[in-house]
Amino acid sequence: MDTTDSKIVFDDKGVCDHCNTFYKDVLPNWHTGERGQRELEALVAEIRKDGKGRDFDCIIGMSGGIDSSYLLYLAKEKMGLRPLVFHVDAGWNSQAAVNNIERLVDKLDLDLFTDVIDWEEMKDLQLAFFKSGVPHIDTPQDHAFFATMYKFARQHNIKYILTGANLSTECIRNPLEWMYYQSDSIQLRDIHRKFGKRPLKRFPVTSILYHKIWLPYVKGIRVVRPLNYGPYIKQDAMKLLEEKFGWQPYPQKHFESRFTRFYEGFWLPARFGYDTRKVQYSSLIVTGQMTRDEALERLKTQPLDADTRRQEFEYVATKLGIPVTELQTYFDMPKKTYRDYKSQDGIYRIGARVMRLFGIELGGKR
After folding, report:
1. Is the pLDDT at 358 greater than 80, yes or no?
2. Cα dist. 320→92, 179, 192, 311, 328 in Å?
3. Angle at 160 between CA 153 and CA 27, to 5 degrees
4. What string of DSSP letters covers 315-327?
5. Which of 244, 63, 52, 222 is nearest to 154 (CA)?
6. Percent of the chain residues past pLDDT 70, beyond the cut
7. Average pLDDT score, the chain
8. b/e string for 183-222 if b means 16 or more Cβ within 10 A?
9. pLDDT digits (tens, 9 = 90+) for 135-166
10. Cβ-contact 321, 120 below 8 angstroms
């Protein structure tokens, strides 16, 4: 990480606050050895017990990316669970993502449930975020993903949602000024109210209080991260998936979505100067999966080459039903931040402090 994160702080040894937070708060409380194995076994036993008499023990959100794909393999083959594979189609799947999902589901002999988001409402909301001028234009897609999964779990009384979110490749978090909280329904609705053209009748909307308090503490629905309980080496996981399932890798984390590929590969770095590879590589560096020199060498090249950037720009404009010139006006418009719109930032900050105090969350955004 560097000063493209405006809030970054370096100590007298030149170590940034992201790394110091990892070594001070995350690493001492992250157990991937025998303790982690015991905790995972206890968790799996709970999930199996709750799943007795049901068609499924749990649901796993599946994007076709490395983390969710590897988790699906572990859940079925190593943990002996009976997960329902849950996929949210927000209209931006890459063909590689579709292929990966199909191959794992077929070879693991699992059931797949796909929820398709209303495209006209999704498109309108995404255009509203472009018009707002904020960096976090991927919010509508991400919000739809977890809001839909939470709703499904509640409707079908499924107590465990397994996610591929993990510390091994995500212990360094994107700064808030780069990617604001995607679950902030107040900001989502405010931006849509100002720039949207059609009502959100079918688009799934959730809130921080709903999925952080109501679901776990009232309804007993837990979101768990099994990859945090044992060693998780990204390259080893990719190799295993390629050999066992013919899994197709991506050039960069999160590129299984065409929109996220455009957003993280072009829009964020070109318009705002935010290169998410710095966050991703920093996580791999502190967990011993990449050297700093290797990361710096990779950062010498753009995430997408010039031809691909042009093609993706045209693709996104066409998909959203607008001229390329209109998308260009959004790219050139004055920059805004999450602070320019209504938000629940205060609630998030209080909640984050409480969760860190009780060890529920390690590290976190800032």
Report:
1. no
2. 11, 22, 16, 14, 13
3. 130
4. HHHHHHT--HHHH
5. 222
6. 97
7. 95
8. bbbebbbbbbeebbeeebeebbbbbbebbbeebeeeeebb
9. 999 999 999 999 999 999 999 999 999 999 99
10. no
Q: Could you give all domains of the chain from N- to C-terminal order, each with its CATH number?
A: 17-357 (3.40.50.620)
Report how far residue 315's alpha carbon sits from residue 309's, in angstroms, rounded to the nearest whole number: 10
Which of 217, 158, 149 lies closest to 183 in space, CA to CA? 149
Longest Cα–Cα distance in the chain: 59
Q: Alpha helices of the chain — where are they, by DSSP H? A: 17-21, 34-51, 66-73, 95-108, 119-132, 139-155, 185-195, 208-209, 234-245, 258-262, 276-286, 292-298, 306-320, 324-332, 345-357
Burial 230-254 (b: 16+ CB within 10 A, else e): bebebeebbebbeeebebbebebbb
The answer to whether residues 133 and 198 touch, using CB atoms and an 8 Å cutoff, is no
Q: Tokens 């990779």 label which residue?
A: 298
Q: Are strands 58-61 and 83-89 parallel, antiparallel or unpaired?
A: parallel
Which band of pLDDT confidence, cut at 50, 70 and 90, is reported for residue 210? confident
Given a cut of 90, is residue 244 above it in pLDDT?
yes
> Quick one: pLDDT at residue 350?
82
Query: How far is residue 25's CA from residue 269's CA, in Å, rounded to a whole number?
Result: 29
- Read off the tokens for 28: 């001492």
d(CA 88, CA 243): 26
- List pLDDT tens digits, range 303-350: 999 999 999 999 999 999 999 999 999 999 999 999 999 999 988 888
Whether 277 contacts 252, CB under 8 Å:
yes
Length of the chain in terms of residues written = 366
Beta-ladder partners of 315: none
| Residues with Cβ within 8 Å of residue 66, at least 6 apart in sequence | 164, 234, 237, 238, 241, 249, 250, 253
Whole-angstrom CA distances from 125 to 116, 150, 191, 345 are 15, 20, 8, 21
Work out whether strand 83-89 and strand 160-162 pair parallel, antiparallel, or are unpaired: unpaired
